[in-house]
Amino acid sequence: MERTLSLIKPDGVEKNLIGEVIKRFQDHDIKIVAMKMLHLNRKQAEGFYAVHREKPFFNSLTDFMTSGPIVALVLEGDRVIELNRKLMGATDYTKAEEGTIRRDFASSIEQNVVHGSDAPETAAFEIGYFFNSFEIVG
Ligand code: GDP
After folding, report:
1. Which residue intervals of 1-138 are DSSP H helices?
2. Which of 28, 39, 52, 115 is labelled catalytic?
């Protein structure tokens, strides 16, 4: 069993996609073991995306991530890191496979509805960034 962090980004919340995204997880037997809604401040968004701080889109990305509420979830399942990335689709929604969340709902390379950890090490860091052990069930 593996765990991963998922975020429904401000554009996903704004477009009323919380239920749709969760349905896709549950349709694929992914278990939700933690969930909360929150509104990141700048410091929190910068810390989360620290690996991207040298990128030209860093300021724009942190502006976007602080622009409205998000939903953070911890997902659990067999190879769930890879499965979640598959359900999300490519970062650039124009290159994402049909039927993926980003292909169906993203509006730009930045406003792409969801985040998902990309490896076990990043999943561990990102889950710990949003949740303490008492907030994760099971
Ligand atoms: P992810 O793992 O698929 O989310 O992609 P990355 O880790 O490469 O990038 C993190 C996030 O930064 C993406 O999900 C986008 O929201 C944003 N992003 C990535 N590339 C670009 C870009 O070229 N321009 C802008 N404006 N945002 C980007």
Report:
1. 10-14, 18-27, 42-48, 58-65, 80-88, 101-105, 120-130
2. 115
Tens of pLDDT, residue by residue over 86-137, are 999 999 999 999 999 999 999 999 999 999 999 999 999 999 999 999 999 9
d(CA 138, ligand 1 centre) in Å: 31
Residue 57 near ligand 1, beta carbon < 6 Å: yes
Domain locations along the chain: 2-129
Q: Is 108 in the pocket of ligand 1 (CB under 6 A)?
A: no
Is the pTM higher than 0.70?
yes
CATH number of 2-129: 3.30.70.141
Q: Is the CB of 60 under 6 A from ligand 1?
A: yes
Residue 109, ligand 1, Cβ within 6 A: yes
Nearest to 73 by CA among 12, 116, 17: 116
Among the listed residues 133, 129, 135, the one whose alpha carbon sits nearest the alpha carbon of residue 49: 129
Contact 4, 117 (CB under 8 A): yes
Active site residue 28: no
Report the DSSP pairing between strands 114-116 and 31-38. Answer: unpaired
